């Protein structure tokens, strides 16, 4: 591949409670709801995007919240832990804030870095780490100011059913570099300044089950539509079976499942989330692609009401 990926574009997960998801990621973590739309393949389900002030690639976590859906089990074939990165000297702030919201926190260390590990309200596994790299977010909400705010992804820990094969794909297909090994972890690094550190935990031996509280897929960055075409050819030449290029309104995507059973997506940086609404009003109303507009009333009636709101703990 002529141009390796810069790192993670976005991560998409399943949930059950739409308002609970908004409260946690906007209210607790202070991310911006940058897009409120639907699952294009299941329009009765929201697709919610959270990121920095503009939803820059490398900052975006997305959710399909579906009330009554089955609970998943985190394991092999999934992203096991999603890593967020914050500015230096802000880990203490985040520890205190998470405890303020009654979130159980575990302190741990890996490759010489300190992490705060915790779960969201659905059981999705998350962690926060401090790093210099990456620009600060300009978004402020609740009790989170820009100098403490989450910059975006630090990376992720992958749970693979075949760690050696997943590592080979990261290096030989996606263009990451293997940099270190420690205990059960193997670390790989992409070229970007956020969403660029990927660890494989080789100790995970049990299979995951998709459902609420688990990651559906991890998406990697392609700079342009032209590069996306090259990526598809490259993936296919490595004996994977990528989908055709799919229009996701805010990026174009291909998908393939690597040999450790993790679903990979490659998504283009453009056109971005201001594609269909002004940047200052991102996430304020339900946005539908043109082919669903004729069904707007029925779609809106079938979706639960949600709102971005400051939580009580921030007023204490």
Automatic annotation (TrEMBL):
<dbReference type="GO" id="GO:0051213">
    <property type="term" value="F:dioxygenase activity"/>
</dbReference>
<dbReference type="InterPro" id="IPR052537">
    <property type="entry name" value="Extradiol_RC_dioxygenase"/>
</dbReference>
<keyword id="KW-0560">Oxidoreductase</keyword>
<feature type="domain" description="VOC">
    <location>
        <begin position="7"/>
        <end position="131"/>
    </location>
</feature>
<keyword id="KW-0223">Dioxygenase</keyword>
<dbReference type="InterPro" id="IPR037523">
    <property type="entry name" value="VOC_core"/>
</dbReference>
<dbReference type="InterPro" id="IPR029068">
    <property type="entry name" value="Glyas_Bleomycin-R_OHBP_Dase"/>
</dbReference>
<protein>
    <submittedName>
        <fullName>Ring-cleaving dioxygenase</fullName>
    </submittedName>
</protein>
<dbReference type="Pfam" id="PF00903">
    <property type="entry name" value="Glyoxalase"/>
</dbReference>
<feature type="domain" description="VOC">
    <location>
        <begin position="152"/>
        <end position="269"/>
    </location>
</feature>
<dbReference type="InterPro" id="IPR004360">
    <property type="entry name" value="Glyas_Fos-R_dOase_dom"/>
</dbReference>
């Amino acid at each position: 591949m002529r141009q390796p990926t810069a790192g993670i574009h976005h991560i998409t997960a399943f949930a059950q409670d739409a308002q609970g998801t908004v409260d946690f990621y906007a209210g607790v973590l202070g991310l911006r709801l940058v897009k409120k739309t639907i699952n294009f393949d299941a329009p009765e389900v929201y697709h919610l995007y959270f990121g920095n002030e503009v939803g820059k690639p490398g900052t975006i976590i997305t959710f399909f919240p579906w009330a009554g859906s089955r609970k998943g089990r985190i394991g092999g074939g999934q992203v096991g832990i999603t890593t967020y990165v914050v500015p230096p000297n802000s880990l203490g702030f985040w520890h205190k804030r998470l405890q303020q919201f009654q979130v159980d926190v575990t302190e741990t260390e890996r490759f010489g870095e300190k992490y705060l590990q915790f779960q969201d309200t659905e059981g999705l596994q998350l962690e926060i780490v401090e790093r210099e790299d990456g620009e600060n977010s300009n978004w402020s909400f609740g009790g989170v100011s820009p100098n403490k705010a989450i910059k975006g992804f630090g990376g992720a820990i992958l749970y693979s059913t075949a760690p050696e094969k997943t590592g080979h794909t990261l290096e030989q297909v996606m263009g990451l570099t293997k940099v270190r090994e420690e205990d059960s972890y193997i670390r790989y690094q992409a070229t970007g300044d956020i969403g660029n550190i990927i660890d494989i935990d080789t100790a995970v031996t049990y299979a995951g089950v998709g459902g609420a509280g688990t990651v559906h897929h991890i998406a990697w960055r392609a700079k342009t539509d032209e590069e996306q075409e090259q990526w598809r050819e490259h993936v296919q030449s490595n004996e994977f079976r990528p989908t055709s290029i799919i229009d996701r309104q805010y990026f174009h995507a291909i998908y393939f499942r690597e040999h450790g059973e993790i679903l990979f997506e490659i998504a283009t940086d453009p056109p971005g989330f201001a594609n269909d609404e002004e940047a200052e009003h991102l996430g304020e109303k339900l946005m539908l692609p043109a082919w669903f507009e004729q069904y707007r009333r029925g779609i809106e009636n079938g979706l639960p009401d949600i709102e971005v709101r400051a939580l009580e703990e921030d007023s204490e």
